[in-house]
Design a protein that fits this description.
Layout lengths: L3 H30 L3 H27 L19 H28 L3 H31 L3 H11 L12
The protein binds MU-OXO-diiron (FEO).
The site of MU-OXO-diiron (FEO) has 7 residues, from helix 1, helix 2 and helix 3.
């Protein structure tokens, strides 16, 4: 049985992962609206990944006999001032998600909840990758994105991303 406070945080994390999915769908729509279909594709796949993250938390709760309480998902309301801004917001959001997962991990550690720590290990690593990916997108945009031909090439790269389901087995 999981500690009540851990259950609360896991439940909140489910909402945050679904919000991430919703946020990136909005980002994807923004890029599609601006004919950057490669970036649109990249964020569309990110939407699917975030949904998969949420479902991993759901599964973990179910495996531990805990009832998931689905809360309302907030409306993504960021007005993007440009392409770089959209990428920066994604990076900021990933930092927030990393911190959120770290907080659950810290509590699990304090409570000697080794099972939850082990479950979260995958997410800690995944967040490192997600931060790196979006940070790199920001940096590459700075390098090449302000030139139309450079932006065209970057957009082409983003269009090659394909969805692969998380490899975490619960
Ligand atoms: Fe599921 Fe991008 O954090």
């Amino acid at each position: 049985m999981l500690h009540k406070k851990i259950v609360e945080l896991l439940n909140a994390q489910i909402n945050r992962e679904f919000y991430s999915s919703y946020l990136y769908l909005d980002t994807s729509n923004y890029f599609y609206d601006n004919s950057l279909n490669g970036y649109g594709n990249w964020f569309d796949i990110q939407t699917k990944e975030e949904n998969a993250h949420a479902m991993l938390f759901v599964k973990y709760m179910q495996n531990n006999g805990e009832r998931v309480v689905l809360e309302a998902i907030a409306k993504p309301d960021i007005i993007y001032s440009g392409f770089k801004h959209a990428l920066e917001e994604a990076y900021t959001h990933e930092l927030f998600i990393s911190q959120s997962i770290n907080e659950i991990y810290a509590l699990a550690h304090e409570l000697k909840d080794f099972r939850t720590m082990q479950f979260l290990d995958w997410f800690v690593k995944e967040q490192g990758e997600e931060e790196k990916n979006v940070d790199e997108m920001c940096k590459r945009f700075d390098l090449f994105g302000n030139d139309p031909r450079g932006l065209y090439m970057l957009d082409g790269e983003m269009g090659t991303r394909v969805f692969t389901a998380p490899s975490l087995v619960l």
